[in-house]
């Protein structure tokens, strides 16, 4: 595979110790282009004002690069030429070794995971903390932007990768924008809700990142003390409710209810609207949640279980705490902060 | 925060809304370069209603400046008795912009910082800690002798633990344990995690950089945090423990004690229901 730039770039070549067949291109904040290279991949670099391409190696910083050719021994079409846009860097073409600042001055550097491998010693805890995303982990890292930097990754990238829209690489906002469309399916910036070490620990719920629109924000929860909370955000009810992990989206509403007999759990139930449905989820409460749909006999929602409920459904958490799912009053303002 | 060691102590009492009584905090913070590093790239903020630790990354002064920038923005945006999540999010976004400029001025590949902390907020008329995190600095709470890690690291090893490919114990010695997967800086919008935790009277909260947690295990953290006579004592004991264990990285400890909360969260066990 071949990648070309309209203007010369400075290329930093780092090892990818995790995947020998991996190659990734990404931008660093100062405009340099970083190439992560697995041990099985070789690269030829074409320099500005120079003739034949020359071989480049891990650990080099190569200035004045106009194109690279990756021999990554995987089934990428050799005819694929990627135009990476007008990334401007130093003008002169020279090759110099990649140097690292020693412990005497600066202990913490920014780099890719591979730098730790290059250093060779993992034993000491005083190794520099670095920001990186090891290639094999890309799909388990809980980072909505995790795919944004991934540009070329054999096994993940497909030969039909297209050149990036030029706007992505020519605007200042593109400092860390991919040179190519992300190879992985983009993880939407939706909220990941993870209830941590509670009985719901294995549950991961994705809720929509934006406040439910007027069209969908049609439900609310009525509390015994007269409060009504709109379901334009998730609502957590209990004696002293905690929130789960909130990554992005609308901040949930935490509603503490009195329970002198301590029958209501500290974080007892989650109520949220998903599309046109209201879903009630018992969060592993001690006593469960009694659900009475209109015209139906009450039934127990077991600790940890969830159920879709209709308007008019009563939720009995114990200790006379009975919530009702209601149509959202039109006057009820949206309150949740965004995150 | 380039000095080798620094410390802060403080206390505050605020009125809770709607006649909810009073909330009194006391706190202490200490930071130390450690025994091996030449400079301290940690920064902290310890001033009610917000307490935070940032661990900078980046060559030359960029790491110092990145961590200092994020605590400066938190201090700037959060004022009054209680914070809002919007203020926290705004502060982090602006800090990210600041760090972009720092990186540019140093002509470095990039600089960034972790940041984690707690901010006093009101949720549903009750006091809550908004716990926020980007990176691998941590927040712990100690309540009734139980130590709980409130934040989840954004690290390569945490991702592997989550995926079930290694255990939490294996993570402590894994070669990739110094790789973090999120930071403030690097020209990206920060993506912080957030939790809301009820403010509980008698609880102690610890905010620390990985210079503590990579040297001192959770059992010793729990012991020192619970045995200390007050927040200042706790911050000092924890920092000394990290130094005694090797002090290979910058260490920062911020301890907040909830001395009084009249709207006390009911942390007792739930009882069975008989009816």
From TrEMBL, chain A:
Residues 235-291 form the FHA domain. The keyword Protein biosynthesis does not apply. InterPro entries: FHA_dom (IPR000253), SMAD_FHA_dom_sf (IPR008984). PROSITE patterns: FHA_DOMAIN. It comes from the Bacteria. Residues 137-173, 194-213 are annotated as: Disordered. The keyword Nucleus does not apply. Keywords: Phosphoprotein. This is FHA domain-containing protein. It comes from Agreia pratensis.
Automatic annotation (TrEMBL), chain B:
SMART domains: PP2C_SIG, PP2Cc. InterPro entries: PP2C, PPM-type-like_dom_sf, PPM-type_phosphatase-like_dom. GO terms for molecular function: protein serine/threonine phosphatase activity. Residues 23-258 form the PPM-type phosphatase domain. It comes from the Bacteria. Gene3D superfamilies: PPM-type phosphatase domain. This is Protein phosphatase. The lineage of its organism: Bacteria, Bacillati, Actinomycetota, Actinomycetes, Micrococcales.
